[in-house]
Structure formats: structure tokens, C-alpha cells
Amino acid sequence: MKSKSGSTRTVVKRNYALITPDGFVPSVLPGWKNAVVIIHIAPVMGGPRFTQLAITLDETSSGTGNTGALEHFYYVSKGDCTAQLNGKQHELTTGSYLFLPPKAKFQFSGASKGTKLLSFQKKFERLVGEKIPGIIVGHANAIKGKPFLGHKDARLQVLLPDHPSFDLAVNIFTYDPGATLPFVETHIMEHGLLMLSGGGIYRLDADRHRVTAGDVIWMGSYCPQWFIAQGKTKSSYIYYKDVNRSPL
Ligand code: UGY
Ligand code: MN
Fold first, then answer.
1. pLDDT digits (tens, 9 = 90+) for 120-152
2. Beta-carbon neighbours within 5 Å of ion ligand 2
3. pTM higher than 0.70, yes or no?
4. 241 alpha carbon – ligand 2 mean position (Å)
5. Among 100, 186, 199, 203, which residue has the fewest nearby CB atoms (within 10 Å)?
6. Ligand 1 centre from 146 Cα, in Å?
7. Measuring from each residue's beta carbon to the nearest atom of ligand 1, which residues come in under 6 Å?
8. What whole-number distance in Å separates Cα of residue 27 and Cα of residue 44?
9. Measured distance CA(231)–CA(235) in Å, rounded
10. What are 181-190's pLDDT values in tens digits?
11. Which strand ranges, in their side-by-side order, compose the sheet holding 81-85?
12. How many Å lie between the centroid of ligand 1 and the Cα of residue 102?
């Protein structure tokens, strides 16, 4: 809901940002036609080392490109569409996801109205001695949620292989009402996050923020972070983290 009083829950700080949908403004992204593109998080903010964006499609939309030196991750958060990846066609539905390594050709089309893609994109950092990963097409329904650090009320779905050739991880975290991140995490990995359902309180640095479905969070390296799910339904978020590479 747009605010008429000049208030918003959005805050952009040195080591974190909470960006709420009332402030989203579309921008144009080369290769995408008849699509509404919101760049949630980008290096121009001063801290992030990746980009997070959301693309809303309809029947007339198309998105074409080549990942070049980047890797792209796409998650269908709503609706369905078709993706041609290096010439091969894939039908995507809500919960489908794609990992595209560098130099992959992609084309999205055939969306139903209101289809939403979430994307994380960054420069791929190859690890010496490891192969460049191939294209991955998956569906969240096929990934079992596992208790996080033994906590059955907070379950993690790990969407990409836990392998050193990957320099990113994308996970979906689902919390039962009242469940929490077990401790206040402080770590070198940064996060880009989209709240998919439910809500609660996110502690970011020393601040506590009410969050709800549709909200975006950037957590910079070493931003203390904690979450408690509130309300009567489950809460879930999808998030990116950089992994498996030396900080030096
Ligand atoms: O993977 C993570 O670091 C995750 N536990 N962080 C988070 O949910 N804020
Ligand atoms: Mn974390």
C-alpha cells in the first residue's frame, strides 16, 4: 500500500537494507520487453556484491540474453512461463528455479499474466581446479526441508548443490509460527532475501523490524541477524548467500 503520509518501513543503512514494496519503482533492463523490472538490491548501494531483482511478466513479455561473465539464478515466485536455455525448452511453474552459469543463452516467454520471477545475479568466481557448474532446472517441491541445526520448527530447503564449484547458495527457510533463527548470526556471507509468506520480526544489526510477504532485505557481511516468525501461519523466505570462496 502506498503511503500518503510520507512514512515507510523502508530503511537503507550501511550494512543492511529493508526495502518494502510501497517504495518500489520500475526500471528498464536490457533484453526484457513488456516486463516490469524492480531492482531490489545492487552494488550501487555501496555494500552489495550481487544484484537481486524481480520481474513481473504477462502473455506479451519476453526476456532474452546471455549471462556473459555472470551467473543468474531465477525463481518463479508466482505463475508460469517457458524458458529456452541454450536452445532447450523448459516449462516453469510456481516454485521452479534455474541456475545459469556464465555464457548461458536464455529466453523467457509464454508467461501467464502476473507471473513473477525473482533473480539473483553476480560475477561468477571460478575456483581453480573446479569445473564451471552446468545449467540446473529444479522445483522447490522436489527439495525436502531439513530441520535447521536440529530445529524441527525451522526448516531449510537447499536449492543448489552444496559443492565447492558453486560460489553461491540459494535456500528457502520455512518457520512455524513462533519459531526463530536459533541464535543471532554474524557472518562474512551476505544475503539478499525476499519474504515469500507470513511475517515476523527481523533483527538487523541492532534494530528490529516488522517484516511481511513481499519485503526485501539486504544483509551485508557481518550484519548481526535474527528472525522470529509471528502470526498464525507459516512464514517463509528465499535468500541468497555467497559461499565457498576465500575472502582474500
Ligand atoms: O544461511 C544463513 O546464513 C541463514 N541462516 N541466515 C538467515 O536466515 N538470516
Ligand atoms: Mn545468515
1. 999 999 999 999 999 999 999 999 999 999 999
2. 185
3. yes
4. 8
5. 186
6. 14
7. 173, 181, 185, 191, 225, 241
8. 14
9. 8
10. 999 999 999 9
11. 32-33, 62-66, 105-109, 81-85, 88-92
12. 26
